[in-house]
Design a protein that fits this description.
The structure holds three protein chains of three kinds. Helices cover 69% and strands 7% of the residues of chain A. Chain A is an alpha/beta fold. Chain A is elongated. In chain B, β7, α7 and β8 form a beta-alpha-beta unit. Chain B is α/β, with parallel strands linked by helices. The longest helix of chain B has 16 residues. The termini of chain B are far apart. In chain B, the strands form two sheets. Chain B has a six-stranded mixed beta sheet with strand order 6-7-8-3-9-10, with helices on both faces. Chain C is an alpha/beta fold. A six-stranded mixed beta sheet of chain C has the order 5-6-7-3-8-9, sandwiched between helices. In chain C, a hairpin with a 2-residue loop joins β1 and β2. In chain C, α4 packs antiparallel against α5. The radius of gyration of chain C is 22 Å and the shape is globular. Classes of the chains: A alpha/beta, B alpha/beta, C alpha/beta. At the A-C interface, α1 and α8 of A face α2 and α3 of C.
Chain lengths: 367, 249, 307
Amino acid sequence: MKQLWRFIVKEAMHILRDRRTLSVLLLMPLAQILIFGYVISTEIKDARIGVLDKAGDYASEGLRNRLAASGYFKVERIFVNEEEVAAALRSGAVQMAVVIGPGFGSASSDPDGSRVQLLADASEANTAQMLVNYAEGIVRDYEQELVGVQAKQAALVEVRMAYNPSLKGVFMSVPGIMAMILMLVSAMMTSISITREKEYGSMEILLVSPLKPWQIILGKVSPYVFLSFLNAASILAVGVGVFKVPMMGSWLLLALVNFLYILLALSLGIFISTVAPNQMVAMFISLFALMLPTILLSGFIYPIENMPVALQWFSKLMPPRYYIEAVKVLMFKGAGLGVVWKELLLMLAFLGAFLSLSVYNFKVRLE
Amino acid sequence: MDAAAQRAGGAAIRVEDLVKRFGSFTANDRLNFSVASGEIFGFLGANGAGKTTAIKILCGLSAPTSGRVEVAGYDVARYPEQVKRRIGYMSQHFSLYNDLTVYENIRLFGAIYGLSLSVIRERSDQLLRRLDLKEQRNRLLGTLSLGWKQKLAFSVAILHRPHIVFLDEPTSGVDPITRRQFWEQIYQAANEGITVFVTTHYLDEAEYCQRVSIMVEGRIAALDTPKALKEQGRSESMNEVFLKLTRPN
Amino acid sequence: MMISVHELSKGYGDIQALEGLSFEVQGGELFGVLGPDGAGKSTLFRILLSLLLPGSGTVRVGGLDPVRDLHALRKKVGYMPGKFALYEDLSVEENLQFFASVFGTTPAANYELIKEVYQQIEPFKKRPAGKLSGGMKQKLALSCALIHRPELLVLDEPTTGVDAVSRSEFWALLKKLKAHGITILVATPYMDEAALCDRVALMQKGRLLTVASPGEVVRDFEGLFYGVSGGHPYGLIQACRAFEPVVSVFPFGEELHVRFNRDDEAAEHLVDHLKSSGFSGAVVRPIAPNIEDCFMALMATENDLKG
């Protein structure tokens, strides 16, 4: 036990003495969340839209006002015919066109659903998707008020908006940033620090010593568990404190989810270190095999439901996806263990798989 | 020899009051020496005595704190580019690229020093014949033994016919036969008029030099022919001379 | 018997790193393994240390099989790898402390054993290991390898790239350790260090050329050596080579060492040959070969060094 403790102390000293890396590790999460919060905000503001109002009645005018008053859209053009719509979209004069059907006010109880048409410039697919989502929400809200009955689809949109009422992107990105940072610190840093020993040749001495493989691994990762926890806490503090991200659920459960995810990321890092011969390879594997999928496939940036079916399946294999889902429902909906148990169980399964793979792969020799 | 070297009065290297400090640490403490054109000059010293620092300054890789250094007739501080064109350099650590073939290495370094392809071809044929490596021309360098790599690296370092070639522990870890073959290459180069400035930890190799300097704690503690050094120190071998100078008690 | 190796071979893909090695090392012996870079010394050591698996053949270290008894074996050996492999960002003291605890001991417990070595670096114990000079790094690595009082100390080229003075100091330390009864296995490319070992094995391209005491190597060598001086060495080498009966010519300090086959009477005429070649001041004297001469002669018979 004393052996292990000294090993952890030694590892902590490596981390503490490398001031530059340490400060990057501690400040990066804060920088990330500030960047996401302020700069790359996925929030929509004053998007240029045009309206072709074929109804021209009281109800359609109300919708126009509602769109303009939302703050998301700015009505740049009022079109008189379809040709104008097409031209404005093509030239980029407007990002989205709203075509209000002739029977909008009178026939709004018609279940046909083609009363309002949203045409978006899909060359910027992401923005287009978002504009349409926002507009759809507003239209449904307005319809509901008008008619007073609940259409099925309306309820569906309703759910999407309800837990992010001000539609702020920074909310959505907090769990994503945490998933990314924790993956980076835990997986990349541990895989690099283990392969560093291989590269230096000190791994040879450790292998020749009576230290057991599990002691070497545990000694290497323990300080990073602490560091990762610190990172998770600092992101949450900024998220909740500065950006007013709601925290409806239990802090204890959130800590548990994070702890499990950190262990999962660490086990991935260990696994990478057993296959990578040196620090550079470890870094590349971490970046390309972990970071990019975490960012692209976990639903952090691109909604999973918009992906091709094959990728949707593939995203099921991305552990961060379950972490992000669990954190979202926990924080935004106040879900308890009864809701997130499935995600927790899945992460636990991934953890077990990676750990057994690493132990199986860890070499007590050099070959 | 070009005009600049003529002006220097035949000296390939001239060092006057060279001082290099890192903070409060003096790595080179008022070095004074000169190396004649065509001479084989041994630059010895214990680990950490300041040899590497001095070589870096001579090659124009590092600026002296004070003092004057002339290499191939040019002031290194003012004309580092002129100097770099006229020197060759080879160290124990990096010599050639393991993932290139023998000929690709030669072509690369020939091109770096601005030789035309026809000159590179001609000299490459010549050096491969001399080294008896003709059949290995298209082999990956990484598959050769260390001794052959070092011999090839030396040939490449003098491919552009420099005035001076700097060799930093070229024979470290090399087997005794190849080590001696390496020294024959050095003799050959010196015969052709190339000045050789070499460091080594093998003290029998110090005997192969025309003159030897021994650095101790940043200063040159002795500089003379091996014979004279042994006589002055009443020593049997260079090993003994070295020992007496670096560990006086 | 501390080490016994029988018909050991090891290959990596197409490359045969070790071929049919057999030798034994007695307990308490200072045993040198000599050979150039790439001879297979490190591969041999790593197999003995259980870090690599033997391809074929049997290996016993301290009576244990490195393949099956790897954990028991690893407690008995101290290892200093070829390159400096301690933590450069930890201080001298912290490195020692760490390796002691890895082996379940403390620096104080075995201080008496490492004292000789450690005393020389103790004044710098607060300094990061990365800031030490080459010689001091070597001593720290040796202290760390000794901290658990191993029965067998394995040193892979501890003196490569180290200056002559530090090298001789290092060997003086090894002699003292030997007095503590520790078996020492040391690899080196420096032939002059061979004379300091009890017995030496000469390796080349994965094979053992000879295993003997330094005295035996010299005594058993068949050949006639002359020391030649008086003239510019490069010209003198060429002139000696031009003399038909000469087997080999190598510069050796201030002399050339010229080898003839045993009982070759032509050797007496070398001086005349040199004088007629323009070296009027040539001096030729019979000499006893040293261990490096013998090793070079043994290696030269393996003519293809390019591999």
